[in-house]
Design a protein that fits this description.
Blueprint lengths: L1 H35 L6 E2 L2 E2 H10 L1 E3 L6 E8 L13 E3 L7 E6 L9 H17 L3 H16 L6 H6 L12
Parallel strand pairs: 4-6
Antiparallel strand pairs: 1-2, 3-4, 5-6
Bound molecules: zinc ion (ZN).
The site of zinc ion has 4 residues, from helix 3 and helix 4.
């Protein structure tokens, strides 16, 4: 009985630590986006920035892309519970169902020491939330936001070429 109780506390403890990590990643992504906003136009790569802002801050937004008002849920996947977690740190299942989208954060999202990558992952996934599945758009948008906010951006060369983005309509910042 005592053992079970200890185990329960351990599980609850580790879940709340992960929730805190997700919360921190979201607020850092919002800070990054807000820092970029003054130097960006109203629309970046066909992503309306006021829609994007509503989505990332309120998790509720009116979408010209999907149609109607949508809300976003954020879930944390348990170890081995999601097949997509084998390939991704986070993912959004598209299209929305009943006006709702779900961003799932996988266990590796919470890997210690990956803070900058976490906020970038949120910025990236939110492009899928607002503007659909195009990987090149999501990468180029995230790099543009990061560059506008910090003057530099995280290289995404491998993922960029894996998705054949050189042939896409999107470009990484110079
Ligand atoms: Zn993506």
């Amino acid at each position: 009985m005592r053992f079970c109780l200890a185990l329960l506390i351990f599980v609850v403890g580790s879940l709340s630590a992960r929730a805190e990590t997700a919360q921190t990643a979201f607020s850092e992504a919002i800070d990054l986006f807000e820092a970029a906003l003054p130097s960006l136009p109203a629309e970046v790569m066909s992503v309306d920035l006021s829609t994007y802002r509503d989505a990332i801050t309120l998790r509720k937004f009116r979408s010209a892309y999907w149609g109607g008002t949508l809300s976003l849920g954020v879930a944390e996947a348990g170890e081995g519970s999601e097949r997509s977690c084998k390939s991704f740190a986070a993912f959004v299942r598209l299209p929305p169902e009943n006006g709702e989208l779900l961003l799932t954060l996988c266990p590796q999202f919470s890997t210690p020491g990956a803070d900058a990558l976490r906020r970038l992952t949120i910025i990236h996934e939110m492009v899928h939330v607002v503007a659909g599945p195009d990987e090149c758009r999501a990468m180029a948008f995230a790099a543009t936001v990061e560059k506008a906010a910090t003057g530099t951006f995280t290289p995404v060369d491998r993922y960029w070429s894996a998705n054949n983005c050189a042939a896409s309509a999107f470009r990484l910042p110079r």
